C-alpha cells in the first residue's frame, strides 16, 4: 500500500478557492460597476488566500493549447536532445531541472523545466537546437503565450493596485504597471512511482510580483497553503491561477502576503504546467508604498533593488524575505508564514513545510 503523504491536502477547501471572472472586462464598453466588483473580489482573494483562479481572462484557449502542445513535444525528445538547449549561466531561457536554492536540491525532486524570458524569449533559437530540421511553430506559439501572459499580468497588477485599501496613489506603483519583465517557465512532472516521497517542486514563495499558472485540465498537482493547511488547486482547462508573490508583499508592507505553494507529482499521469512570472523593473528601489507606512506600522522591509536581491545579498533560504526585514519586523515575528493550523502553532518549516525561493 502506498505510504500516506505527509500533510495531505484539504480537499474540502479546494472548491472554496476564489474564482474571479473577467468576462465583463473583455467587452468593448466595460460596465464600471462590474469592474469595481471585480476589483473588490480580487482584493479579497489576495487578502484571504494570496491566490485565485481566473476565468474569461482574455488569453484565447487556442493560444494556451498551442503553447502546451509545443511544450509537451520538448519533453518527448530524448534527454540528450533536451540538454542541447541547456539554459546557460546568465541567460533566462533554456532547459534545465530548475535551479532551486538551498537544501531542497536533492534527488527527490522529479521535475524538469524549460524557461523563456520576456521580452527576449529566445524561443526560436531554442527551437533550432531542439529541432535542427526546423519547427517554426514552436517559437510562434511560445512567444504568443508569453506576450499574452505579460499583458494579462499588467492588467491583474493594475486591478490589484486599484483594490488596495487604503487607496493607494498610482504613482508609487507606476513602474510595476509598465516596466515589468517576465519569465515563462514550463514545468514537466514525469509519472512518479513514489508520489509520497517524491517532490515536484518544494514549498516556496515566488520572488516576483505575481505568478500566473496554467496547470491543464486533468492532472492536479499545485497545492497552496491556506490557514496552515495544504489545499489542492483543482485543474481547469479554462482557468489560470494567480499567485501573489514576494515583491507584492513588500510594496504593500504585508497587506498582501506571498502565497506559499508547492507541486506534487502524480502516480498515473505526467503533468505539465505553464508558469508566467511577472518581475519588477531591475533598477528601481523596491519599498513599501507610503499609504502602507505609518508611525504605528513602519516599513517591515529594508529598501532593495532587484539586482541587489539577485546578487544574493538579501536572499534567504527558508524565508526569502527574512534578509530584508527591518528591525521592526525582526522584533515582531521571525516567520511571517508561521500560522496556527489547529494542530499546534509551530512554524511551517518545523512541520516539514520548508519554504524555498526559486530564482534564476
Ligand atoms: O506546477 C505548478 O503547478 C506550480 C509551479 C510553480 O510553483 C513554479 O514553477 O514556481
From TrEMBL:
InterPro entries: DIOX_N, IPNS-like_FE2OG_OXY, IPNS-like_sf, Iron_ascorbate_oxido_reductase, Oxoglu/Fe-dep_dioxygenase_dom. Keywords: Iron, Metal-binding, Oxidoreductase. SUPFAM superfamilies: Clavaminate synthase-like. Pfam families: 2OG-FeII_Oxy, DIOX_N. Residues 180-280 form the Fe2OG dioxygenase domain. One of its GO terms (molecular function) is metal ion binding. Residues 348-360 have a biased composition (Basic and acidic residues). Transmembrane segments: none annotated. Residues 325-360 are annotated as: Disordered. Belongs to the iron/ascorbate-dependent oxidoreductase family. This is Fe2OG dioxygenase domain-containing protein. The lineage of its organism: Eukaryota, Viridiplantae, Streptophyta, Embryophyta, Bryophyta.
Amino acid at each position: 500500500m502506498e505510504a500516506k503523504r505527509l500533510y495531505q491536502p484539504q480537499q474540502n477547501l479546494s472548491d472554496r478557492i476564489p474564482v474571479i471572472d473577467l468576462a465583463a472586462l473583455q467587452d468593448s464598453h466595460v460596465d464600471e460597476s462590474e469592474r469595481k466588483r471585480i476589483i473588490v473580489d480580487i482584493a479579497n482573494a489576495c487578502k484571504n488566500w494570496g491566490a485565485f483562479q481566473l476565468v474569461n481572462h482574455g488569453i484565447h484557449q487556442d493560444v494556451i493549447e498551442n503553447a502546451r502542445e509545443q511544450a509537451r513535444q520538448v519533453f518527448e525528445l530524448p534527454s540528450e536532445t533536451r540538454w542541447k538547449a541547456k539554459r546557460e549561466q546568465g541567460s533566462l531561457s533554456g532547459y534545465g531541472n530548475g535551479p532551486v536554492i538551498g537544501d531542497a536540491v536533492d534527488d527527490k525532486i522529479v521535475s524538469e523545466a524549460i524557461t523563456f524570458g520576456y521580452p527576449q524569449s529566445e524561443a526560436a533559437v531554442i527551437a533550432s537546437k531542439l529541432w535542427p530540421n526546423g519547427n517554426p511553430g514552436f517559437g510562434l506559439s511560445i512567444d504568443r503565450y508569453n506576450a499574452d501572459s505579460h499583458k494579462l499580468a499588467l492588467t491583474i497588477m493594475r486591478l490589484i493596485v486599484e483594490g488596495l485599501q487604503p487607496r493607494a496613489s498610482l504613482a508609487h506603483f507606476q513602474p510595476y504597471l509598465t516596466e515589468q519583465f517576465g519569465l515563462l517557465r514550463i514545468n514537466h512532472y514525469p509519472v512518479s512511482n513514489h508520489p509520497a516521497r517524491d517532490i515536484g517542486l518544494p514549498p516556496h514563495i515566488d520572488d516576483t510580483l505575481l505568478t500566473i499558472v496554467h496547470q491543464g485540465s486533468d492532472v492536479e498537482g499545485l497545492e497552496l497553503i491556506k490557514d496552515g493547511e495544504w489545499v489542492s488547486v483543482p485543474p481547469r482547462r479554462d482557468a489560470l491561477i494567480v499567485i501573489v508573490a514576494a515583491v507584492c508583499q513588500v510594496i504593500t508592507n504585508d497587506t498582501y502576503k506571498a502565497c506559499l505553494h508547492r507541486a506534487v507529482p502524480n502516480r498515473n499521469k505526467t503533468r505539465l504546467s505553464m508558469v508566467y512570472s511577472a518581475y519588477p523593473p531591475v533598477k528601481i528601489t523596491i519599498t513599501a508604498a507610503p499609504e502602507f507606512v505609518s508611525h504605528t506600522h513602519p516599513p517591515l522591509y529594508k529598501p532593495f533593488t532587484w539586482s541587489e536581491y539577485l546578487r544574493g545579498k538579501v536572499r534567504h533560504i527558508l524565508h526569502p524575505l527574512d534578509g530584508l526585514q527591518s528591525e521592526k519586523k525582526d522584533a515582531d515575528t521571525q516567520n511571517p508564514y508561521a500560522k496556527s493550523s489547529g494542530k499546534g502553532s509551530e512554524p511551517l518549516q518545523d512541520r516539514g513545510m520548508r519554504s524555498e525561493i526559486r530564482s534564476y
